[in-house]
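Structural prep section.
Before we set up the soaks we want a predicted structure of the protein with adenosine-5'-triphosphate in place, mainly to decide which crystallisation condition to try first. Input record follows.
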Amino acid sequence: MSEYKPSNEGVDQPTVSKNFIRQRIDQDLAQGLHGGRVITRFPPEPNGYLHIGHAKSICLNFGIARDYAGECHLRFDDTNPAAEDQEYVESIQDDVRWLGFDWGETTYFASDYFDQIHDMAVTLIRQGDAYVCEVPQENWAEYRGVPSRPGKESPFRHRSIEENLREFEKMKAGEYPEGSRVLRARIDMCSPNIHLRDPAIYRIKTASHHRTGDHWKIYPMYDFTHCLSDAIEEITHSLCTLEFEVHRPLYDWVLEKLQTPARPQQIEFARLSLSYTVMSKRRLLKLVEEGFVESWDDPRMPTISGLRRRGYTPESIRHFCDTIGITKFKGITDISLLEHSLRQDLNQRAVRSMVVMHPLRVVITNYPAGEVEELPAARNPEDPGLGERLVPFSREILIEQDDFMLNPPKKFFRLSPGEEVRLKYAYIIKCHDVITDPASGEVIELRCTYDPDTRSGTGTVNRKVKATIHWVSAGHGFQPTIRIFDRLFLVEKPDEPEEGKSFLDYLNPDSLHTITSAVAERGLKEALPGQYFQFERIGYFVPDLRLSRPGEPVFNRSVALKDSWTKNRD
Ligand code: ATP
Ligand code: MG
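Run finished without errors. Recording the tokens verbatim:
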């Protein structure tokens, strides 16, 4: 087995306080369990793209492997040929790698163990611990019963071992139609735990499997496959979400009955639920298939690939996962915490630039026509090492419409008739004339004067003005397309629709705005996907990795500069 190699220096250091799983591992190591080794796994089913919930599990499993000098296996839990696809296998690998984790040389697939798992099912039959059941699917619920009352024994429960072996062989040979028979573990029809009431462990499936093709007509069920795959790979700690707690007795039963040499322990933790988001792959698939979003990597999706396209950094996601921690407490995490984590990270790394979203023309009447000054501006004040950019200044500039008011209220400190404002990196200007559209009365142009002695950094006069605004030189900017995203859902818990409603009823109809009026600082024209920007005073933006063309970036807003949903944050 290959060793987990911590591949990247960028990956965060262990957190100081230990969660309950790490405490448990410490105890196990102290007692010499599992030969002193720690092997975890991340076991996605390749039936969809990974989402931010999976990131929690990835950071947990790979983080533990890193900190205990152990291994973390990437294992595809591919036991349902109908829903799975190679496209998902590839996207999952890309996403785990992008998050900053490395699983070494070997990628594991449950389907690689189909022969072994089959043999173990035969062993169970030989031991009298499994039988082929022909009760039709529509009657299963009736036989299974409810937790407070015992279930009913299947009439096939007492078949002879020979008959069971023969029947299972015929299932395997494809002699029976899908749904007509299952192999069931023979456990206890009276158990208060429904999962122990002779659960199905093998079923007939005629679909073609993305890796084994048409070789198999029968497929092991998740509960039977998972514990055996863990045992085969000698996983020491099998970490999963709380809904599997009730499956644990079955997990242990299988390993006990088959006397597997390795005995992994299942430990459960609370899954991540995010407000204003759905996380089930079934629902995410529906959003894609029914065209509510463009694709799995639509920047409004909570998928890793969507977050990446939106402009999330791996660091911000890992930091978020560290912040939320690992507990047994089922809660809902505010999405603004994820956004906060991104802002913090981008503040450190994003290159600053000026973009005017809704331009208003300003003519500086005392500035010489045809003259252009190149004014220095920090690329990132948090990181002086990034140096400076040069921003052209000229007689005609553009400012935000919002930064001017004809009849300002008392607390409006930006530009208005007769008032002064500072242009970032440049001069103080004063408005002396306002030109309006005679028909609509709309302000269409301002006439201002500038004070040449007030240039930022080098000016001899530094008058106090109450506001600094961003701007772009009218003749030097360009017009990028900019996409502004809002939350995909209007309610906190779209995952729990009211009676008679679907999660789709809560979709935000205005989750995407495309802005084509903006004018951006010249330097942004060559922006490339993978670079991060702060449009000063507006937010963080990245060139979209699908829609951008060389010299024609299309920007996605990753996150606004301030949280506009939760007041008084930041
Ligand atoms: P879905 O129910 O949407 O299909 P899943 O949980 O079945 O999702 P898997 O591909 O089986 O998806 O998940 C792989 C691993 O990721 C599992 O160990 C699972 O427990 C974990 N996981 C999935 N969703 C979350 C979540 N929201 N928070 C934490 N871990 C998660
Ligand atoms: Mg699953």
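Observations: The chain has twelve helices and 26 strands.
Flagged for discussion at group meeting.
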